[in-house]
Design brief:
Blueprint lengths: L10 H20 L7 H4 L8 E8 L8 E9 L17 H14 L2 E7 L1 H7 L1 H18 L6 E5 L27 E4 L2 H4 L1 H24 L5 H4 L5 H10 L18
Parallel strand pairs: 1-4, 4-5
Antiparallel strand pairs: 1-2, 2-3
Helix pairs in contact: 3-7, 4-5
Length: 256
């Protein structure tokens, strides 16, 4: 009489459960979380109504401008906008599709730039402030004055530098006078900041594509001025262009 194969009780169900659990984990990883206005709406308690989400792009590039985007939302009554995320997480075609939708969705929007020459002249932080101030003034010129600013990152580079003493020169020109609140990775969780990043990224990418048509050797239509190995190699062999940040170490580590 043949005997049945020896099986440990519960083995098959245990394997099935493990497989199901693994499948659920895999599905959970595929869930995409989109930013909301939850963080922004916490500012309602302080009496704010119009909030300006602010983000920059191009800070770490070797060539081209640094660009700052602003998207203003009404905290009392503003809908969400589908598919908008931090611009780095979106495909170029998705950013191009979303950019006009962001402008229509926002109460007001703007992008300001500071050139590579300005970056070389005043440094990257002051250039960020300059680009942000240009975007801010465009918002104000449209008749919109935000009550508060939500800025991506940990450092407030947008507000004018504080006058240290009576013997120091006061900041020149207009600047952002609204209170600025910083938040690390705000572009991941805050819809206004993610929207601002899309605006800034699309505007800067278009500038770099236009510059590529003028100076095609550096491949800016692909690398958008960032430090790819191919970009650095062209700088080594041909030298920098008029649009490179020549105060920076453009070629990176020396190649032996």
């Amino acid at each position: 009489m043949a005997t049945a194969p020896n099986r440990t009780k519960g083995t098959a169900p245990a394997k099935a459960k493990a497989k199901l659990k693994g499948g659920l984990k895999a599905k959970a990883k595929q869930v995409v979380e989109f930013p909301t206005l939850d963080v922004e709406r916490t500012f309602l308690a302080s009496g704010a109504r119009l909030l300006a989400g602010v983000d920059e792009v191009g800070r770490g590039a070797l060539a081209g401008p640094v660009s700052v985007g602003i998207a203003v939302v009404n905290l009392e009554d503003h809908p969400l906008l589908a598919d908008v995320r931090d611009s780095k997480l979106l495909k170029p075609e998705d950013r191009d599709r979303l950019e006009p939708l962001v402008r229509e969705w926002a109460v007001a929007s703007a992008v300001g730039h500071a050139s590579s020459q300005e970056i070389d002249s005043i440094g990257i932080i002051a250039a960020l402030r300059l680009a942000g101030t240009r975007a801010w003034c465009e918002i104000l010129s449209g008749g919109i004055t935000p009550d508060v600013v939500l800025l991506d990152g940990s450092h407030n580079w947008l507000s004018p530098e504080v006058q240290v003493s009576l013997f120091d020169a006061a900041p020149e020109g207009p600047g952002c006078e609204a209170p600025v609140h910083t938040r690390i990775k705000a572009d991941m969780s805050c819809l206004s900041v993610a929207a601002a990043s899309v605006l800034a990224k699309v505007a800067r990418d278009r500038i770099m594509v236009d510059l590529h048509a003028e100076v095609p050797a550096y491949g800016w239509n692909e690398n958008k001025g960032y430090a790819t190995p191919a970009h650095r190699e062209v700088i080594r062999t041909q030298g920098p262009s008029a649009y490179h940040r020549t105060s920076w170490h453009l070629t990176g580590p020396e190649v032996s």
